[in-house]
Amino acid sequence: MSCLPYINDNWESSTALHLASYALWKLNWIHPFFDGNGRTSRAFSYLLLCAKIGMRLPGTVTIPDGIVKRRSEYIAALRKADTAWVEERIDLASMEKMLEAAMADQLLSALEQAKGKGITQDS
User: Which pTM does this prediction carry?
Assistant: First the structure.
């Protein structure tokens, strides 16, 4: 089951965070790769978010880095979305909240760079 029809059908009416959350969840759900599934879904989700907002986000601590940093929150959000799917609904609120925090980290890293502090993903 592809995630692209949903993304295409909702491109104009949904937020960038919602579409990126959907892609992140659905690519993990269908698990099309034996190895690298998490990296692939995080990269695609990030690319989709940037495409939807029309720009590459500044910062050295990227959203995919932020997702890895929030692993337990990420897994819980995936499970919550899976549970909703079984109930025949889409609930990505937890995933969107986690992506929002990861996006804030990335933008904060850009601010820190601008101020000459240059934080890294290990900070």
Answer: 0.84
